């Protein structure tokens, strides 16, 4: 008897699709029925046949004809919608289906078509290499995988495939480097570990190194690793005795590991600090924020939430981000806020493969549904209301709100802040002590049996970050948080258009009026990351910014025009134009529209003329942005992370995130400096040993080996 979707009466195509996505892991046949119902309800949408085809490929890998019908339809509909990623996913799935059937020529053509649309598609590159190897074209397979790593140096199956292929072709040293790199990207993968043992000769039969159609690529098992910026180049790989590190002690639950299937219910946290607003002076209107902190503040909180999830053996319900759209001069300009899921920016598959059990909020609570939970642990009930705006936004309510003393996260601070029923809202602080936070959380909530453990403020597990010298738990957790592929693809596209292969200096500087008045002049802003912050560090004058850029440019031998600027400057005439016209600094920006032609003049000749005029005037603009406005910050940060040299703005969390990304890429800290820093501060920043989890990628720097992004 055919399986039915069993959706509620009068369901829409979107509802059937959503139900199918929720069921595809636990009830795949019912999920396929839901996708089929969604396709009948909306025959012009690409998503139902795409998910039907990919799920069929997963549960019936040799049902080639059935898979092909649905994926061809998805590709055709995706083209009609101009949805490149959907078309590429359908073509990649077709490649897998034909590869499973031994139809090598058709499989290769499908993979090549997918790569023509998305060159950074890690899975499609590995699939094409599988096909080339299956027909004996080993050298060609190596070329495919090396091209994949040129697009995305953190593609696990490309490294793994090269480990097996290079050994087959006689390059044992190269094979070993790539085996190490593959395991760093995907720790504890059984097949990757077997390959490494075989390369070392640890009693593994030689056929463990065979390379052919039976590879580690499937339609759904391998994510697009274009989101990854977590390792250095394989050429700067680990020493031959290296093995994947154990979980840091501060992330290890009671008993050393979580029970199979998990021990408890989910962890739900509101990381969005409330109480902030701005006054629109023109309209005489006060506008409240959903979140005082912006993207990188929430990201910093998310790191602690992920760590706590591991400590307590609770899946984390990911809170997403409230992203602001509109003018950046927040003291006088209106803006809008929009909630976006965490997967909009970060690769969840990479997190899950590293052992972080995460669930999207919309998976846990579908949009439009409401849910009442038994209790909420609140950090300051009695002196102020619990923080409820995030929960109310998602139709979540609580029967009981309990005052609770727990360490909550402090931006830019290693100290723990404890708050409970505190009339002055000051709380009290305890100095950073390694392991203190983890020990407290295990003892206090480790045996909590509630279905949902909920907090109204971001918790802290106690992570060291003074002088931007990340402790082991922070480094390990942040190292597995990787941006999605489109962010990296956009950053690469813009960086290549602006600088080609030439070295360049990236500069980040905060410039919004809120920065000066609401942070730099406050006691809070004057002690961050363990440093006493001066105005020269926090908000240097435009003249000082220009002097420091010239000094860094000269120190590292950067050509005068090869400077990338990332800033929240509210308008060019207040900052950028002064840098260019008064101080002679030539630089590039991402997405700055002033030198772009209007829509009416948007011909190729007009674009070229505008670019020539901009360069002649000392301005440099890359291609127009290909992503939505919400990606502007993450693209800026990714370009800065890829730059051979970086000049940052402590105490900004934007700069802190860029430093974390640069550490993950593998740039040495001698390639980074900051506004207002003297030798003592730079020595504190640079006197840092990479944590155990990632140290192997730095082991050969002294030999002149450079990361993959170096020029």
TrEMBL record:
Signal peptide: none annotated. It is found in: Endoplasmic reticulum. It holds the Pfam family O-FucT. InterPro entries: GDP-Fuc_O-FucTrfase (IPR019378), POFUT1 (IPR039922), TPR-like_helical_dom_sf (IPR011990), TPR_rpt (IPR019734). GO terms for biological process: fucose metabolic process; Notch signaling pathway. TPR repeats lie at residues 88-121. GO terms for molecular function: peptide-O-fucosyltransferase activity. Pathway: Protein modification; protein glycosylation. The keyword Isomerase does not apply. CDD domains: O-FucT_like. Belongs to the glycosyltransferase 65 family. This is GDP-fucose protein O-fucosyltransferase 1. The lineage of its organism: Eukaryota, Haptista, Haptophyta, Prymnesiophyceae, Prymnesiales.
């Amino acid at each position: 008897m055919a399986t039915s979707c069993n959706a509620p009466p009068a369901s829409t195509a979107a509802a059937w699709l959503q139900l199918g996505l929720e069921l595809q892991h636990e009830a795949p046949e019912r999920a396929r029925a839901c996708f089929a119902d969604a396709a009948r309800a909306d025959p012009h949408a690409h998503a139902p046949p795409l998910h039907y085809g990919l799920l069929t490929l997963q549960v019936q890998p040799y049902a080639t004809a059935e898979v092909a019908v649905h994926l061809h339809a998805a590709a055709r509909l995706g083209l009609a919608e101009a949805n490149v990623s959907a078309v590429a996913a359908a073509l990649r799935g077709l490649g897998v289906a034909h590869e499973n059937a031994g139809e090598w020529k058709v499989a290769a053509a499908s993979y090549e078509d997918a790569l023509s649309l998305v060159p950074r598609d890690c899975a499609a590159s590995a699939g094409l290499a599988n096909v080339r190897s299956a027909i004996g074209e080993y050298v060609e397979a190596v070329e495919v995988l090396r091209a994949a790593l040129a697009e995305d140096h953190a593609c696990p199956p490309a490294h793994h495939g090269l480990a097996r292929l290079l050994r087959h072709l006689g390059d044992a040293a190269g094979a070993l480097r790539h085996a190490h790199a593959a395991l760093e990207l995907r720790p504890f993968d059984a097949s990757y570990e077997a390959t490494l043992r075989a390369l070392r000769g640890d009693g593994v039969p030689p056929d463990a190194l065979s390379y052919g159609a039976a590879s580690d690529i499937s339609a759904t098992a391998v994510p697009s690793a274009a989101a990854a910026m977590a390792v250095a180049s394989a050429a700067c790989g680990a020493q031959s005795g290296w093995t994947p590190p154990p979980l840091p002690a501060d992330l290890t639950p009671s008993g050393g590991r979580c029970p199979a299937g998990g021990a408890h219910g989910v962890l739900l946290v509101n990381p969005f600090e409330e109480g902030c607003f701005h006054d629109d002076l023109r309209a005489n209107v006060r506008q409240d924020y959903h979140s005082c902190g912006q993207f990188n503040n929430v990201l910093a909180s998310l790191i602690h939430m992920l760590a706590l999830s591991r400590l307590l053996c609770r899946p984390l319900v990911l809170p997403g981000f409230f992203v602001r759209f509109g003018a950046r001069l927040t003291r006088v300009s209106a803006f809008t806020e929009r909630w976006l899921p965490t997967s909009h920016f970060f690769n969840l598959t990479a997190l899950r493969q590293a052992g972080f059990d995460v669930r999207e909020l919309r998976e846990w609570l579908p949009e439009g549904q409401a849910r009442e939970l038994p209790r909420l642990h609140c950090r300051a009930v009695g002196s102020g209301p619990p923080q409820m705006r995030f929960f109310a936004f998602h139709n979540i309510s609580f029967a009981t709100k309990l005052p609770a003393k727990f360490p909550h996260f402090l931006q830019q601070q290693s100290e723990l802040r404890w708050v409970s029923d505190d009339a002055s809202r000051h709380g009290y602080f305890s100095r950073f002590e390694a392991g203190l936070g983890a020990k407290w959380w295990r003892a206090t909530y480790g045996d909590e049996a509630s279905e949902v453990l909920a907090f109204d403020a971001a918790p802290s597990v106690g992570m060291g970050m003074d002088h931007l010298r990340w402790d082991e738990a922070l480094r390990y957790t942040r190292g597995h948080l990787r941006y999605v592929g489109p962010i990296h693809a956009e950053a690469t596209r813009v960086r290549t258009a602006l600088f080609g292969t030439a070295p360049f200096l990236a500069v980040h500087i905060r410039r919004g009026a809120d920065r000066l008045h609401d942070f730099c002049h406050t006691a809070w802003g004057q002690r961050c990351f363990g440093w006493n912050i001066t105005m020269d560090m926090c908000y240097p004058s435009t003249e000082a910014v220009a002097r420091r850029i010239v000094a860094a440019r000269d120190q590292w031998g950067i050509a005068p025009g090869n400077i990338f600027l990332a800033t929240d400057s509210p308008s060019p005439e207040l900052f950028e134009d002064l840098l260019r016209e008064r101080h002679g600094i030539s630089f590039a920006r991402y997405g700055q529209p002033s030198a772009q032609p209007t829509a009416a003049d948007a011909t190729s000749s007009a674009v070229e003329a505008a670019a020539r005029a901009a360069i002649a005037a000392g301005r440099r603009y890359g291609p127009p942005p290909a992503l939505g406005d919400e990606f502007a910050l993450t693209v800026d940060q990714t370009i800065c992370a890829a730059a051979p040299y970086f000049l940052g703005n402590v105490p900004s969390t934007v700069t802190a995130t860029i430093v974390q990304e640069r550490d993950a890429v593998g740039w040495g800290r001698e390639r980074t400096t900051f506004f207002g820093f003297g030798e003592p501060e730079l020595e504190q920043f640079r006197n840092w040993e990479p944590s155990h989890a990632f140290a192997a990628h730095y082991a050969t720097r002294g030999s002149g080996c450079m990361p993959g992004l170096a020029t």
